[in-house]
TrEMBL record:
UniProt protein name: Oxidative stress defense protein
Cleavable signal peptide: 1-21
Keywords linked to the UniProt accession: Signal
Pfam hit, one: SIMPL
Gene Ontology biological process terms in this record: DNA damage response
Amino acid sequence: MRAVTKWAIALSSVASFSVFANPSFPHIATTGYGEVVAKPDMAEFSVKVVETTLTAEQAKQTVDKVVEDFLASLKSNGVEADNFTSSNLYLTPQYHYPKKGKPELVGYRATRSVTVVVEDLSQLNQYLDLALADGINQVNNIRLKVKDQASYQEQARMAAIKDANQKAKSLAEGFEQELGPVWRVNYNMQNNQPVLMRSMAMDAKSEASSYQDSTIVIRDRVDVIYKLDN
């Protein structure tokens, strides 16, 4: 085998090189990517009630009643208390700004939010219907998730490791070098975002089946430096 001077074969993004201090021996640096496609089986959604009235007390009472009714409906439909939370009241004065003169106080806007974890995705529409019936007037978002996130993440991680190894072997063979042992591994678990459905007003019907046909792509990545034997 030919002698190898101090050089490196690198297959990675520019960002990957900033991760490693460049070693002084012959090496190959690769970045492995892995992903797993999963079907969501649970969800988390956040809804909000917004009311504007002439007085602060009236706005507060209206919003509090809607939230209390919705929480009661969730409980009566079997949702555990650990699976929903409600925010504190947020109250802001509303002003009219005439072209001339001082701003005029015209009322108060009160808002409260409720976040619900749905253990069974098939019940998501049911809970959204409850929110609508109880006076909730905004859906902030719907996040689709998988219960066994750790298992899917492990599959994506192993796929990333396999990808890094395959790239390193291919490069070594292509340049007629002998791949040595792994010298360094840099791993930071990918921050996978759940599928986020669009925000909507409660008076507009959403596509009932849109989230049921969705998939979640869980990704992972690993940066590896291999020694080259010469």
